[in-house]
């Protein structure tokens, strides 16, 4: 049996665009031996829920246990009590290494409380060519994929591995190096530490190293098909079944690449003697769609492919277990503070998962709210940076039911996730709409009860966010040209 007193350090690993069924603890698609091993000895939260479809919508929960927009009507955590700040106040050394997601930078307050913080948005290589490609990852994907046969031959002739991408635009090896140096430095100062690492590899465009493509495709997919998949999506061509399969394969290869990197970091913890006193948490910030509801990537929708994410917690000495109760990613900050024996800020909304990890105590069963903001176009809108840049979409879900509402139009959807796990059959389809509100006519009593309750929770959440906007003064949220370029490179306009 373990307890918080046995833990000196915590490592939080977040992976951009990582849907739950992309890793082997949750499904049979994944080729993720490191995460499978972590799941076997740790706790798997089978129904972990992201609080938004985009990184800036989910991370206020992940690093501040606060709903997005709740404190000032804008993205970011500048006005929120953050996890690293709570730890730093208790003399815990903190390090954060973000692999180039421009929405997780000091501009939006994510550096607050970190002793060492590196967003890597500027450290993209010394040459003009490197910097240009890092700011244009789609072009870099073409370069990398086109040269993969040459690199494979070179690797074979030299005897070296080919796990490194041609140009490390994802910054995977940079964050590995930064995290490794941070861990080794803790050997010298013998201080408890919190380390956060954010990977970008599964984010579009998917550009894994060749070895991982071969690992997940069993050598059945050639480079020319990778180029074709990227070309068809880049130029807006129709995505048929073969292209979709190729994109899925590239995505899974990128996930496998992250799995290998996590394995190397765990080896560093072991080599430095930290593996027996360090809790490791792995989570996705949101998922990824492959046309389950008509699109690719992570447009403003709230179905499970975008909101159901992995959450693994490995606490040394704790028994492996699986927890079925739904939990939100806002549970991560209080779980970390609980590991350190630090009081969580009163403003945090999440509940510590440590009791579930230590002895299997079920988390409180409360429906979980997620948000998106949708403009006039689903596929071309920029990512909203404030609540007033589109229609607010809210979802409320528990283990069985999913409620989705466009609060501006009143349009509502309702799904039985037990009988309809991919949310293809809206239980409200065909029901009349009266005064802008749907009037369900054919729901079973349990469904009706859930529908009514979830509607009330959605209304309460919308009112809370509206109050935050009403009480906020106008703020100039302009970013500098360099950061804007990085955001645009990832499709974040």
Summarize the structure.
The chain has helices at 33-41, 55-64, 83-88, 128-134, 137-146, 148-158, 172-189, 210-217, 223-234, 241-271, 304-307, 332-340, 354-359, 445-470, 481-489, and strands at residues 9-15, 43-45, 48-49, 93-98, 116-118, 193-199, 278-284, 289-290, 296-297, 308-309, 311-314, 321-323, 327-328, 368-374, 391-397, 401-406, 412-416, 433-434, 437-438.
Describe the secondary structure blueprint for this structure.
Elements (H helix, E strand, L loop, with lengths): L8 E7 L17 H9 L1 E3 L2 E2 L5 H10 L18 H6 L4 E6 L17 E3 L9 H7 L2 H10 L1 H11 L13 H18 L3 E7 L10 H8 L5 H12 L6 H31 L6 E7 L4 E2 L5 E2 L6 H4 E2 L1 E4 L6 E3 L3 E2 L3 H9 L13 H6 L8 E7 L16 E7 L3 E6 L5 E5 L16 E2 L2 E2 L6 H26 L10 H9 L4
Parallel strand pairs: 1-6, 1-7, 2-12, 3-13, 4-5, 4-6
Antiparallel strand pairs: 2-11, 3-10, 7-11, 8-9, 14-15, 15-16, 16-17, 18-19
Helix pairs in contact: 5-9, 7-10, 8-10, 9-10
Descriptive key words:
493 residues; alpha/beta; Alkaline Phosphatase, subunit A; 2 domains; 4-stranded antiparallel beta sheet; 15 helices; 16% strand
Could you characterize what this model shows?
The longest helix has 31 residues, at 241-271. A hairpin with a 3-residue loop joins strand 15 and strand 16. The protein folds into two domains: 4-366, Alkaline Phosphatase, subunit A (3-Layer(aba) Sandwich); 387-476. The protein has an eight-stranded mixed β-sheet with strand order 5-4-6-1-7-11-2-12, with helices on both faces. Residues 121-127 have low confidence and may be disordered. It has helices at 33-41, 55-64, 83-88, 128-134, 137-146, 148-158, 172-189, 210-217, 223-234, 241-271, 304-307, 332-340, 354-359, 445-470, 481-489, and strands at 9-15, 43-45, 48-49, 93-98, 116-118, 193-199, 278-284, 289-290, 296-297, 308-309, 311-314, 321-323, 327-328, 368-374, 391-397, 401-406, 412-416, 433-434, 437-438. The chain is built from 15 helices and 19 strands.
